[in-house]
Amino acid sequence: MAVYAAAGAEVTLVTCTLGEEGEIIPKGLDQLGAWAGDQLGGFRAGELGVALRSLGVIDHRFLGGIGRWRDSGMAGTRSAEHPRAFAGGPLAEQVNQLREILDECRPEVVVTYNSSGGYGHPDHIRAHEITMAAFRHAPSVRRVFHIAAGGGAVPSADGQATTLIDVRARLDAKIAALRAHATQVAVHPPMFALSNGIAQPIAETERFVLVHGPADGAETDLFGGL
Question: What CATH number should be reported for the domain holding residue 201?
Answer without folding.
Answer: 3.40.50.10320
